[in-house]
Design brief:
Order of helices and strands: HHHHHHHHHH
Structural class: mainly alpha
Oligomer: single chain
Number of helices: 10
Largest sheet: none
Distance between the termini: 74 Å
Shape: elongated
């Protein structure tokens, strides 16, 4: 019985059993097991323990950032630097391209009434938050947020002429 799905093996590693057998005299399953120990019986025991420990662990999905990024803070920081400035590329889903955006809490932190409208505008236009997300955070209806965004846009147009 194979430990891993053959389709997964070929797609994820670009390694076929034929290549492993010809190059190393090992199957893919052997190769995986040998990462745990050089003795097959011990490798199988350690692999079982590894799988059991994984079954008891919390699902990693809770730790995903930006829909697809899973890793340490250092890794996420590197990703943020890499995708910074690419927020306008529409081929990248919004949740993935706006990983670098500040939280709504940070956007509205210490904003007085006169700057709040600008913060609402920036949250929606610059950082890609939906009207509903912003409205929920502020405790108002999304139509109110829409009117604020429109008012700020009109002020910007009025000031430019």
């Amino acid at each position: 019985m194979s430990l891993l799905n053959t389709d997964f093996r070929v797609r994820s590693c670009n390694i076929t059993e034929d290549i492993l057998l010809k190059s190393y005299g090992k199957t893919f399953d052997d190769w995986v097991l040998l990462t745990f120990s050089s003795e097959m019986a011990e490798a199988e025991r350690l692999y079982r323990e590894f799988v059991r420990a994984g079954l008891k662990a919390d699902a990693p999905w809770k730790e995903i950032t930006g829909q697809i990024y899973l890793g340490s803070e250092k890794f996420i920081s590197k990703i943020k630097k890499f995708i910074s400035g690419k927020e306008t590329i529409r081929e990248i889903p919004k949740t993935q391209r706006y990983i670098t955006r500040p939280s709504l809490e940070d956007i509205f932190k210490q904003k007085d009434k006169s700057n709040k409208d600008k913060a609402v505008y920036e949250a929606h236009v610059r950082y890609g938050y939906t009207l509903k997300d912003t409205a929920d955070y502020l405790g108002v209806h999304y139509a109110t947020v829409s009117r604020i965004v429109k008012r700020v846009e009109e002020k910007k147009l009025y000031c430019k002429t």
